[in-house]
């Protein structure tokens, strides 16, 4: 008797729990239509993860009567934000505007998630820095307003460098030599770049990951040119000059107590440093990115994002007006610079007073001068393609293994693994891929 | 005769009436009431479970087709078996299933063994401070799994984890998140979180063991070990079976713990478990494939659970 009841309960729960697997990953049911179409006040919904947008939206709503912004902060893109955006598009209740990284835009285009706003946007092209404008165009069409850019520079702990008699490296060979010298004093470099953070090195070296050849994609993160870059970083791993894994708590602690003395990365690391390593305020400084050949002046770009106009938006023109205003209005840009420490992509943004003043965290250095130089030196022959989430996701896992020196994993094998995963995904979706 | 007949006749009519008409009313009334009691469940069940399942099955029968460069948007083409065939040939997905099976085969018996052991200890006549032990072993279940996984990821951190500081005394240093250990590091987090939950279910069943039976065993001179083995465990067998089924399903749906630990190690990839694999398909915006993976997982779990029930009920009869 008892066991038959248990059996009945058991069978019922098998069915419901087994089914739970199906429903568990179904999309968030976030409500909110994209725009209220009553003809009087247009409501444009905006989703972003960077801070400062909320203040910007307030200013917009105070100064505009015909259009109002309904703002929602979401998780950063690859921390769940993109899933949320994709789910809402699939469910048909997406916002009109969402923040999307430059690197993810081609994937969004491929998935049909964004709306072509070339017609509305064309007239405003000159309001933006060329590096930013390039980021929002895929295949000659514009999909939103550039928001920020991520030219790469070298952040270094000046106090630690001086105390150990290490000069600021200008080439990658010097960077490794600096690492060896610091290692003797028990100090490490940040070297564990995993996904997007690593892509910037390939970008600088002019070693593309995506190319279109004969009407098909070539996926080339482990091309000969890329393997040269990989060799260099593998060398740093083997020489044991790199510290705790990037983004880990140990890493943040190391930045703060001076045991990790560098970050090579995008301009937006300035904000990360201030947050993660408040203790070492005044010690850090910014220099130009080390070069492969002395005298070169080339850099890469990591990150950078746009306010993309999403599929399902019933008034893309109004959406463009809002996106353009957020990126170019001086008061709005100031809020974004204050809130998220972004390096703006618009001309008006780059002229912001906030950028022209010395930064106490960096010992009074006007760091945006370095960013400005870097922004002008970003290699222009880089393009992202479809399947980026898979490529950088797989790369991140492989790189973690390489840095842990596990199972024969190296930077090169991580790159190969990333290529294989991306190729098989693109093929599954019927996209032409060169092998 | 006639009078007796006529006098005898009415009662049966009355009883007939009594037997037919009055019960009719309650029956229709109960069915009317029943709708109110069952209705909310049925509506929620259909809306939250049946409809999404049917939709997932429907969705899984489409194939994503993009143009050559993939920049022209997406088409969904009806091709019922494409995603299923692809899933069965997808080595990462198959590996994730194998991993979870291995996980279940090891972790479920260990966890339930611990749960049963603790339940028997707390239930035993000589136990002291029962309330304290019951609560303290149940407490980890009250911690959300994401939080407990985060906490463990700090404890597993290669540079400053307390276990290695202890092991260091014996000259040992183990990276708990290396490829050899990662699955068992996950198993440990799950065991820590769910042992108490299963213990409570088994403990509750132990409370239902009749006192006379235990007294009789005692009078017959059965030792506490003997009582536990031959009386208590057989009597709480249904509860143990129930927790086993829950645990099998739980293992198949393993997600939170490995997903959180993934941040700290390269040994856990984006398709580490079947649900993570389906989630990874969502990230590449391949909803139909994610649906197919979910359907396969659900069917697999249902088959496994039914098989388990069949096996155990046959053995008991």
From TrEMBL, chain A:
Keywords: Signal. Residues 1-18 form the signal peptide. SUPFAM superfamilies: Periplasmic binding protein-like II. The keyword Signal applies. InterPro entries: Bact_solute-bd_prot1. This is Sugar ABC transporter substrate-binding protein.
TrEMBL record, chain B:
The chain crosses the membrane at residues 33-58, 100-121, 133-155, 181-206, 235-255, 290-311. Residues 1-27 are annotated as: Disordered. Its main location: membrane. It is found in: Cell membrane. It is a multi-pass membrane protein. Keywords: Cell membrane, Membrane, Transmembrane, Transmembrane helix, Transport. InterPro entries: ABC_transporter_permease, MetI-like, MetI-like_sf. It comes from the Bacteria. The keyword Lipid biosynthesis does not apply. PANTHER family: ABC TRANSPORTER PERMEASE PROTEIN, DIACETYLCHITOBIOSE UPTAKE SYSTEM PERMEASE PROTEIN NGCF. Belongs to the binding-protein-dependent transport system permease family. This is Sugar ABC transporter permease. The lineage of its organism: Bacteria, Bacillati, Actinomycetota, Actinomycetes, Micrococcales.
